[in-house]
Amino acid sequence: MKICICGGGNLGHVVAGFIAAQKKYDVCLLTRHPERWSRDIIVESPEEVPYLGRLNDVFSDAKYAVSDAEIVWLCLPGYAIRETLLQIKDSLQPGAAVGSVVSSTGFFFEAMDVLPAGQPLFGFQRVPFISRVVEYGHRARLMGYKERLSMAVERMADPEPLRRHLEEMLRTPISLLGSFYEASLSNSNPLLHPSRLYSLWKDWHEGVVYDRVPLFYEEWTEEAAQLYIGMDGELQQLLGVLPVRPGSIPTVLDYYESTDAPSLARKLRSIEAFKGISAPMKKVEGGFVPDFHSRYFTEDFPFGLSFVQRLAREKGIPSPVIDRIMGWGKSVMDAQG
After folding, report:
1. Mean pLDDT of the chain
2. Cα–Cα distance between 309 and 221 in angstroms, integer?
3. What is the CB-side half-sphere exposure of residue 219 using CA atoms within 13 A?
4. What is the pTM assigned to this prediction?
């Protein structure tokens, strides 16, 4: 089977290397920087024995990358999804399945608008791996797995063969969702990150400099947890008026096996794969300031939380916590240009 991975970020490195290491697939990569890539990719893993994958080819031209691919898999930030879909749409095989490693940054909305009406689509509710690049184009680190994955499939009469293929590739059980909304409207990063960012820097203004960079998860506060629970409550109300199955997107308290803000904060502080991750800041004279150009901002507000807010408004669902945090995020990003 021929697989094309689109994107050379953290997830692109790990997904491409992990699948190629199984030596059962022809894996190629589409990236803006092919000259920086080795064909041999090392993926460090929690099991200490690394995965050694060999890519079939590395391309910068979408026409050559996807023309014979049976699965085209986007491992891209939200802002790059539409642009990449426009690049590949005229070179896709009619039956090729086009998907996204995570769907909460607008993949289905964009794909349904850009790609031909019959093009099969798939997208995951949450990312399969926690990933970090160690040496660009050569080595990456797989920091954590999901025990199970949930995936939405559209425009495919029988999605079961695709589900089995992807389950085998990722070596993780995959269940099918009932609607693309169930994958697109995640309460993971689009709610998780903004709640923490707002609690950290809602009072920040030009001229404020901090003397340290906090740990994003290990110092998670009860305030951030309460904001997260509040936004999730508004999302759950929205789901109640959409064509989704009850419980298909668990509440954050259920997902993290918590009962209230204090227990949720403790849980997030304790997750091993989250340890050592710093809040997005940049060094300036005298200390540190928030980095409003980091993907925590540029991804999760305009290509995550915004979709939830837009649908809530369309359906008449009150969303005061989402509106407050989304309004703050937009204002600070607009102020930075």
Report:
1. 95
2. 24
3. 12
4. 0.79
